[in-house]
Structure formats: C-alpha cells, structure tokens
Design a protein that fits this description.
There is one protein chain. The chain has helices spanning about 5-10, 10-15, 45-60, 70-75, 80-85, 95-110, 115-120, 125-140, 140-145, 185-195, 200-205, 210-220, 225-245, 250-255, 295-310, and strands at about 20-25, 40-45, 155, 175, 180, 260-265. By secondary structure, it is mainly alpha-helical. The chain has two domains: about 5-145, no CATH class; about 155-310, Tetracycline Repressor, domain 2. The strands form three sheets. It has a two-stranded antiparallel sheet with strand order 1-2. α13 (about 225-245) crosses α14. The protein starts with a helix and ends with a helix.
Length: about 325
Amino acid sequence: MNQYEALTSFLPALREDSFGAWSAGVRTPDMPADKQPAPVLAYSPTVTALSEALRAFCAKHPEFDTAHYSETLRAHGLGFNFTALSTADVSEAGPKLLLALLTAAWRAEGICEGTVLDLLREGVIQRWLDRLETVSVSDKSAPARAARSARAFVLFGNPEAAEGYLTSEYPCALEIDGQTYTSAQQYLLVQKALLFGDSAGAEKILAASDPVEQRKLASAIKNVVSVFWEGRRQLLLYRATREKFRQNPALREALLATQDALLVYASRTERVWGAGLAAADPAISNPLKWKGMNQLGFVLQQVREELSDSSDGE
C-alpha cells in the first residue's frame, strides 16, 4: 500500500456517495417560541471517515507540514477562501500542496459549516484525491520512503482488560459543568437524552451506575432525530473523553504511553464507535478492511495528541 492510499482509497465510495444533508434543527424545551432552531448538517459515514483519516494521516506525516497549510497555499498563489480552493489548478500539484488543500477545506468547515459538502458536490475534493493517487505512483522521495514505517496498533474493547481504560464505559469519575458522571459513556448518554428533551430519561441514566443498564435506558430515549444525533455525538464523546483523561492522571499517563499507536475499538457489532471487526479478525490490522468508522479510536487519538502537546509545554 502506498502512503497516500489511506486517503485515495475513499475515491470509489465518494463517487457513489451523497456526502451529507442539511435538516431542520431540533427545538429544545427552553427555546423561545419566536426562534427557529438552526439547521443541522450531518455528513455521511464515508465523509466522516475521510475526515478522520486525513487528521490521522497529517499527524503521522509531519514532513508535509500541514500545520502551516496557509503558508503552502500562499506559496502557490492561493488564498484561503472557497473560490481559491474550488478553482485551484492541481494538474501539476505535488503531495504537499494537495494535502494543504485538503487540510484547508476541513479548517474552512470549522469556520463556515457546509464548505466541505459544497466542495464535494462540485467534485473538487475528488479532483485533489485523483491527483494524489496519480502522484503516488511516481513518488520516490526520501521523506515518503521514511514515512512508510509500520505503525503499532492498540486494540481495545473489554473494559476489564488491560486496555479497558480506553473504552467509554470504563468506570472513572469525571465532572463536567458541575455534574459528576461515572464514565464517559454516562455523560454521552445523559447528553443524548437532554438533547432531545427527555429530562426524565436523563435522570434515569444519571442514577444508573451499571454501563449495561445505562445503554438499555438510552435505547428508550424519546424523540431522537437520528440525523441530528449523528452530527453531535462525536463532539460530545470528545468532550467526555478529554475530561476523563484530563481529570485522572493515571489514565492520562496510560494514554500517553501508547505514543503514536493507532487506537482501535475492536468490536464486531460496533460500526460507529468501533472498527466493526473483532480483535481476532486478521483484517483488524488493515484500516482499509474495517467495516466500521472507529470514531472512539480516533477521538482517543485526538485527545492523546492534545494532552501530549500540553505536557510538552509544561
């Protein structure tokens, strides 16, 4: 596998994908009658996975200097705006510029929601990936060869196993907004109930200490709008996971000890938070063969990177 295949492998799926869709926001009980809820954009699983793959790729390959993507764009006479991105001529572009463009697209998404969706609908991101696929055939640079070293995997799934502290249901007290939770999972499920106005359901989940019981209660949450939940769940999990490791020094050190390993939630049945494969499945070591998005694994890696940066600055 060439080093860019982690990104270019999404091309076939993107050619058949709808990318995402806007939907009406959910009215909360405390919202004034004269106010309308903001529309919600939910990206498809393919686009969500591509976003995570790009972030992981950039973290793994510092030689492309994507942290300074704007400087790379300026060096090629490009600005950081939709017109510049969508009309950029990439017929002769190298991997550094292509990765800067991809990074810029997702950074722009954080400023103006829907930017990535528009770029995908116009075929712009696909064009960048097509060029990256072409470049990979002839890329013989020394940095590229150096970047092909094997990356370690850490598989987790059982809360009682050695790596169980990585699971969201791992028992560990954390406080968010003045409320104490028994685990990251409990926070996530309570917030899900509150998000859809089910305060009674939230209270029941908060009162339950058993992870299985919490999930059972969460399955009964009322008025869930799937597309809205899909757009919020990862952000909520990120917040819970970040606080879990910030507030528990022993867990923080254990997470940092995984260094740059790929963290994989190995579960045959979990295709959102996990890889959709069991730990014993040989395909688990090849992200291209995963049947799930491994969102929990990628959230953990993001938190690890942030905690590592803060430790270096101390």
